[in-house]
Design a protein that fits this description.
Order of helices and strands: HH
Distance between the termini: 11 Å
Number of strands: 0
Radius of gyration: 14 Å
Helix content: over 70%
Structural class: mainly alpha
Number of helices: 2
Strand content: under 5%
Length: 61
């Protein structure tokens, strides 16, 4: 389990949210197109970032 000092929580969450937004924009531009390797990679990253976000929320010490 990851332990995050409370003083870094807001900064880490903001960084994760910024990355999620960036990936969301990239995926949105691919909407309706074929499921390419790049699109699969971005979708995988998006899911991983969501997990990281939940870990940060739960593991603040």
């Amino acid at each position: 389990m990851v332990s995050v000092d409370i003083k870094y929580k807001d900064l880490l969450l903001e960084a994760v949210e910024d990355l999620m937004y960036k990936i969301s924009l990239e995926l949105n531009s691919m909407k309706g197109g074929p499921l390419t390797a790049e699109r699969k990679k971005l979708t995988s990253k998006q899911k991983a970032l969501e997990e990281v976000q939940h870990l940060i929320y739960r593991s603040v010490s």
